[in-house]
Each structure stands twice: as structure tokens, then as C-alpha cells.
Amino acid sequence: MGWPITNQTDGGGGMKTTPGVRAKMCAAWVERRKRGVSPETRAKISASGKGKKHSASWVEAQRQTLLGKPLSAERKAKIRLSQLGEKSHSAKLNNSKVREIRQKYAAGGVLQIELAAKYGVSDCTISQVVNYKVWRHVK
Length: 139
Hints:
Elements: H1 19-35, H2 39-48, H3 56-66, H4 73-82, H5 95-107, H6 112-119, H7 123-130
Helix pairs in contact: 6-7
């Protein structure tokens, strides 16, 4: 979009605009900001980045940017779901083992400490599993 500009320079090498033109330019800029990005453009932008890995420096920059900022409840829930159960990097049990533990304990005749030794976890973990304090999503 072209705007009428005077023939004078502003001293910095740029062209000087009249106050009326500046007002029009400002109003046009505000309107573009209000409209935002169209859904088609947003889809193109999103598709252009699919499958690309971020560089380590970019990841570190993002980490530093977010450092100390509080997370929303929605974001916390999303993180919690992504690391739930056997998806956790530190999980020693999986869904089938948790079901086995609960079935064996419910049947009786086995101590929590025996189950802990068999599955390689602490007796405290077995207690939490059988009492649905952890692995609640596994029925």
C-alpha cells in the first residue's frame, strides 16, 4: 500500500511524511493488528514447521525465557498427563505389572514387601499402588 510522501527528508535519510499521512498509516497499522492472522496463513505457518527439530541453542533460549514464569493450571495438567505412568522416564512399573500387583495383593497370601522385592520397587510404592495413591489411571 503506497502512501503519499513529501519530497523532504527527515535528516536521517528517510522521507518525511505529513501529519495526515502519519495518522492514516497509524490507523491502517492498528487495523491490521486487530485483524490478526487469517486461519489460512496460520495453517501455512504451522505446516511449515512440522517435523523440524529445534536447535539446542533455540531450546535453551526458550527454557531461559520461561524460567521462573508460573505455569497455568491447564499447562500443568497437560504436562502431568504427558508424564503419567509408564510414559515417565523413571517408571519401574508398567500398566500390566500394576494390574498384576493389585490382583495378587487382593487375592491375599502375599505381603507387600514380597511384591516389592519381586518387582524391584520399594514396599512404600507397593502400598501406594494397591491403595490407588499412584497409578490411579490403571483400573
